[in-house]
# Entry
Amino acid sequence: MSDYLQSYSENLSRLLLGTVVTDRSGNELTFDRAVEEVTELFISRARSGPNKIMFVGNGGSAGIVSHQVFDYWKNGGLRAVGFNDPASLTGSANDFGYANVFSRPLAVFAQEGDVLVAISSSGQSANIVNAAIEARKRRSAVVTLSAFSEDNPLRRLGDWNFYVPSHHYGLVEVAHLAISHSFLDYILAHKTPGASPRRIIGRDEVTDAPRLEESPETRGGRP
# Structure
C-alpha cells in the first residue's frame, strides 16, 4: 500500500470512529445506539408506516442525496424523496431565494411523522438550516449530518445529529456518505428477513409483469 493511500485511509477511519452523535438536547449518544434508533424510525415511518424520508443537501451533499434516495427505495423498500430536480430547484431559487429552495417545498410536502435527513459539511448552509426548521414546524423528525465547527447551527436542530470532526471537505463528504449508507446497510443486515447488505433487488424481483424490450430503433439512437 502506498504511503498516501495508507495515510488517507487512516484519516478517514479516524474521522468515522470519531463521529460524535447528539440528541436534540445536546446529550451524547453512542453511534450504535443512534443507528439503532434512526433505523427503527426509518422502518416504522417509511416502510411499515405511511410516511417518507426526505433528503436535502447542496453540491457534494446533493450527490449523496440523489444516491441515497435511490438506494433507500430500491434496496431498502423505504419511501425516500429528494428535492434536487433542476427545474424545481432553479424555479424555487428564482421565486423564493436560494435560502428557501428546500424549506418552501417542505412546507407543502412534509407531514407529521415524516423524517428529514439534512446534510451539510459546514452545518451553516442557510437553505439546509431553514429546511430543518421547517421540518420541525411540520412535526417531522430530523436527522442531521454535519462537520467543520462543532457548534454549527444545524447540529442543534436534529433529533439525531451526526457530527464529523473535520474541516476537510473530501473526507467529510465521504464520511457522510458512509454514515448514510450505514443506516441502510444496518436495516438490510438486521431488520430485513432474508436480506443482507449485499442484497440488491434485481429486475425480475420487482414485478412479474411482462417487460418491454428495446426496439432496434431505440438501440439505434432514434425514439
Observations:
- The longest strand covers residues 141-146.
- Residues 196-209 have pLDDT under 50 and may be disordered.
